[in-house]
Amino acid sequence: MTKLSTFLWFEKDADQAANLYVSIFGGRIYDERHWAPGGPAPEGSLMSVSFEIDGHEYQAFNGGPGHPLTDANSIYVDVADQVELDEIWDKLTADGGSGVACGWLTDKYGLSWQIIPRALGELLTDPDPERSSRTMQAMLQMVKLDVAALQAAADGR
């Protein structure tokens, strides 16, 4: 049976990134591999770390420069409300991460995340096209999403 996992190439600090993600979302680190003699990094240094969050497996690789992470790939996080959104956002942007636009951020390791409240999907698919349009226009002006402001925009307030 085929098994899928997400492979993340970090220049360095793959283990620190994995530990941060597991500390925020729960899960576990279940394997570490180290460079063998003759590899491109010092023998015995960390090559990769395997971890699991919410039933999804990730491989974080210390591959060195040359293949930077971009926002072409991101991890989408469905959050219940503003409290959960704020908590996750603050943890992922701490110590060098930054907000980008429309609920997207980049953490201090360069990985892109989308922290999206469930309410946004409901508002964007409202059967009233004016409500969904007002929601979209409000969202496009935001970096970190604000559920109350999105709702107010949908309501025309």
Mean pLDDT reading: 96
CATH class of the largest domain: Alpha Beta
Stretches where pLDDT falls below 50 for ≥5 residues?
Answer: none
Order of helices and strands: EHEEEEHEEEHHH
List the domain count as a whole number.
2
Q: Roughly how much helix do the residues carry, as a percent range?
A: 25-40%
Q: What spatial order of strands do you see in the largest sheet? A: 1-4-3-2
The fraction of residues assigned to DSSP E strands is 25-35%
Shape: elongated
Structural class label = alpha/beta
Q: Please, how many helices? A: 5
- State the end-to-end distance: 53 Å
Q: What do we call the CATH homologous superfamily of the largest domain?
A: 2,3-Dihydroxybiphenyl 1,2-Dioxygenase, domain 1
CATH fold topology of the largest domain? 2,3-Dihydroxybiphenyl 1,2-Dioxygenase, domain 1
Number of strands: 8
The radius of gyration is 19 Å
How is the biggest beta sheet arranged?
4 strands, mixed
Q: In the CATH classification, which architecture of the largest domain applies?
A: Roll
